[in-house]
Amino acid sequence: MDPVHASILPEVPGEKTKIGTSLVDTAAATIQSFGPTKQIHQHLCAFHFYADDMTRQVEAHHYCGHLNEDMRQCLIYDRPDADARLIGLEYIVTEELFLTLPDTEKPMWHSHEYEVKSGVLFLPGVPGPVERKDLEKVAKTYGKTIHFWQVDRGDELPLGLPQVMMALTRDGQLYPSLAKDVESRYGVSFEKERANRAYMEGPTHGIHPKANAAGIGLKTVLREIECKPSVQSESVPRVFV
Amino acid sequence: MLHTPGNLATNHFSKVTSHPVKTSLHQRQPPNNRLQFIIPNQGTKTKNHCCSNMMASSDKAPDSMPVGDGSVPPGKPMTMGHQVVDKTAQMLQTLKPIKQMSQHVCTFAVYGHDMSRQIETHHYITRLNQDFLQCAVYDSDEPTARLIGVEYIVSDRILDTLPPDEQKLWHSHDHEVTSGMWMNPGVPEMNQRSELENMAHTYGKFWCTWQVDRGDKLPLGAPALMMSPQMVNMSVIKPELVRERDRKFKISTDEARKSRVNFPVSKPGNARVADYWMHTGKSFAVDIEQVEMKDLGGQKIPSI
């Protein structure tokens, strides 16, 4: 199927924000501290595809912060703009942390070596030498990405179930039109960067065979269950104190 | 309102493979190419289905990890060199979507599959328009806070446009707001009023991807669907959690509740099925299953 470009996606339904509402928002923003989000220090652009469907590929703008040297957490938007939609999140860990994950967990995580070394993962606006200092580390990491909003199929709202996402692992997967679109919008050349990054290395122990959905696919499924604890157990609603 | 099919600028829908049912929601393309959610017939099987292999479930404890030094997440402190690289990059990038976050809200949520598990949450909220907000959700307001999920918020007007199978995943906010649990720390109550009145008419969809309260050192397993505090049963938030929150932020949930008692609340339409558990006694868990991946050549990658 043809890839969808972020620039032509439909609008989120709803009325324009009223002046009164936005004034309150602005006031709140000046008074409150934003501890967790102040840690977000990096914008990283890459591509994801659905873990059960490689034909659906999405441009993903990651806004990342470090929890420590070994872990980052990222908010993912569909564009790097003020009105961008928050479509998912990604956690990034070093190889050392990845190897401590249970084997049943590892398939949900993907490697970053190919994305970095091929040049398709980049830091918009950051000059090559600075960018590479960080991406050397990223090349050895693994990520777990969940998307909640399937903008590529035209959803105007975040409908349905969370989707496990995967990352590119070899040449021939990324749609050339998507690649060219990103390259021209950001004035980058993946091929040039590939040459610049040839020195980089992936995980020390090689890409784990269980990573990247263990070579198969993953799908989320909803299951209806009885409420726990049982809602039948109390016939009278408890009043909140 | 949602666009009618004719207004969609593009029509790039993936060909969807059906999956067998326990009670999975799947998407099927109706003739006008607008994806809708339906509950498939029980017992339906398709030729594309391979034997599913459950990797994880949001309502089941994950396999164990090394204990380490107990820190969550484990890991070394940031090196000085790394901090310098980060700061350099940060000065060169604009981070526009992050700058749009205009509110910090502290509230509570319960796990849909186990309402005895209740957490304090910190939402960092961006309003996209009068009817829609998106929130990055953390487990504290500290710089060390862990990103535990995402919540989307829509007005009741928008919720009513969603099909029933979608509405079941959403929860109301009127009790959460009028009870005083939903708070903007640091903002005087009267300054919050108009925003709160708006929020009382909204519905949320909250996926939790890191069950820190369960002891997970890293974000393990499948995303969990969260529900909102209500006046009913186990979704009533434990008083000690509220007291602790109030103490930390020097606020009074009780005082807030008194000042919000006359808020106009949403009048539910007959067809509204949000807060599904309250009507049916049933909730939802999410499973992650191994399936065949659709690859680019149209060939299925064979199962191992």
TrEMBL record, chain A:
GO terms for cellular component: lipid droplet. InterPro entries: OBAP-like. It comes from the Eukaryota. One of its GO terms (biological process) is lipid storage. Belongs to the OBAP family. PANTHER family: OIL BODY-ASSOCIATED PROTEIN 1B (PTHR31360:SF0), PTHR31360. This is Oil body-associated protein 1A. The lineage of its organism: Eukaryota, Viridiplantae, Streptophyta, Embryophyta, Tracheophyta.
From TrEMBL, chain B:
InterPro entries: OBAP-like. Residues 1-29 are annotated as: Disordered. Coiled coil: none annotated. Residues 7-29 have a biased composition (Polar residues). Pfam families: DUF1264. Belongs to the OBAP family. This is Oil body-associated protein 2A.
